[in-house]
């Protein structure tokens, strides 16, 4: 699989808070960094996303006096409540220091509306508020997107599903992702990718092509 000018690499939320010792640490989250760094030179179009919440965000358990990893109902439906993470301007919200991001054309910050979470890089969790990414990619004549990063079962999953809905051919590079994996969420993500026709590949399918 050799990427061409119609392909984009979407690097999802490779931020300190999702790496070991971070506020919402994804097991082995930092291990995606060298894998992604090997991929970036293969793509002409690279987009980074950055989870970027205001203090007191509606997705934070502390905002509701609730336990982290419990669920609540917000105006758009069910929402998992997380430990405070990726607060705007905090060290935890910075990209992993070793992530080579110089080649990225665009950084999409998401989860900025105080009352709406945003797992997907395309639409917030209300499923209607757009980040503008679909329009950007179409303006660049992108036809296919390759998704990598954190977390496989949340932001990568929702991004890949929305990419399909937005009519992009969609590929997830599995060894360039790690999962939070609660309540079978990693297996559910894989099952959904299979159902939707989202391709799952290994990074070597790209780097050795
Ligand atoms: C994420 C939970 C909350 C993610 C972001 O990047 O997968 N998960 N915010
Ligand atoms: Zn978040």
Explain this structure to me?
With about 210 residues, the protein is α/β, with parallel strands linked by helices. The chain has a single domain, classed as 3-Layer(aba) Sandwich (Rossmann fold). Helix content is about 25%, strand content about 20%. The protein has 6 helices and 8 strands; from the N terminus they run E-H-E-H-E-E-E-H-E-H-E-H-E-H. The chain has helices spanning about 30-40, 60-65, 135-140, 150-165, 185-195, 205; strands at about 5-10, 45-50, 70-75, 75-80, 105-110, 145-150, 170-180, 200. The strands form 2 sheets. It has a 6-stranded parallel β-sheet with strand order 5-2-1-6-7-8. A two-stranded antiparallel sheet has the order 3-4. Helix 4 (about 150-165) packs parallel to helix 5. The protein is globular and about 50 Å long. The protein starts with 6 loop residues before the first strand and ends with a helix. About 45% of the residues are buried. Zinc ion binds near residues 51, 59, 85 and 111.
CATH class: Alpha Beta
- In the residues, how many domains can be counted? 1
Strand line-up across the major sheet: 5-2-1-6-7-8
Q: Low-confidence stretches at least 5 residues in length (pLDDT < 50)? A: none
Instruction: Say what the CATH topology is.
Output: Rossmann fold
Specify the biggest β-sheet.
6 strands, parallel
Overall CATH architecture: 3-Layer(aba) Sandwich
Rg over C-alpha atoms, rounded to the nearest angstrom: 16 Å
- Gross geometry: globular
The hetero molecules present are: pyrazine-2-carboxylic acid, zinc ion
Count of runs of 4 or more consecutive helical residues: 6
- Give the terminus-to-terminus CA distance: 6 Å
Order of H and E elements: EHEHEEEHEHEHEH
- Total beta-strand segments: 8
Strand content: 15-25%
Category by helix and strand content? alpha/beta
Q: Averaged pLDDT, please?
A: 97
Q: Estimate the helix proportion, in percent.
A: 10-25%
CATH superfamily: Isochorismatase-like
């Amino acid at each position: 699989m050799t990427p061409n000018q119609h392909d984009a690499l979407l690097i999802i939320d490779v931020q300190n808070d999702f790496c070991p010792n971070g506020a919402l640490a994804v097991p082995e989250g930092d291990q995606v960094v060298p894998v992604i760094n090997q991929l970036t030179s293969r793509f002409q179009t690279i987009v980074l996303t950055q989870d970027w919440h205001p203090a007191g965000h509606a997705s934070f358990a502390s905002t509701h006096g609730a336990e982290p990893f419990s669920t609540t109902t917000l105006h758009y439906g069910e929402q998992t409540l997380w430990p405070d993470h990726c607060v705007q301007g905090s060290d935890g919200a910075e990209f992993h220091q070793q992530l080579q991001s110089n080649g990225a054309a665009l950084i999409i910050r998401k989860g900025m509306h105080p009352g709406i979470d945003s797992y997907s890089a395309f639409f917030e969790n209300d499923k209607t508020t757009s980040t503008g990414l679909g329009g950007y990619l179409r303006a660049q004549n992108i036809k296919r997107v390759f998704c990598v990063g954190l977390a496989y079962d949340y932001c990568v999953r929702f991004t890949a599903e929305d990419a399909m809905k937005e009519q992009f051919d969609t590929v997830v590079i599995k060894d360039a992702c790690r999962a939070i994996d609660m309540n079978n969420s990693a297996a559910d993500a894989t099952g959904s990718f299979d159902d939707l026709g989202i391709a799952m590949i290994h990074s070597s399918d790209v780097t050795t092509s």
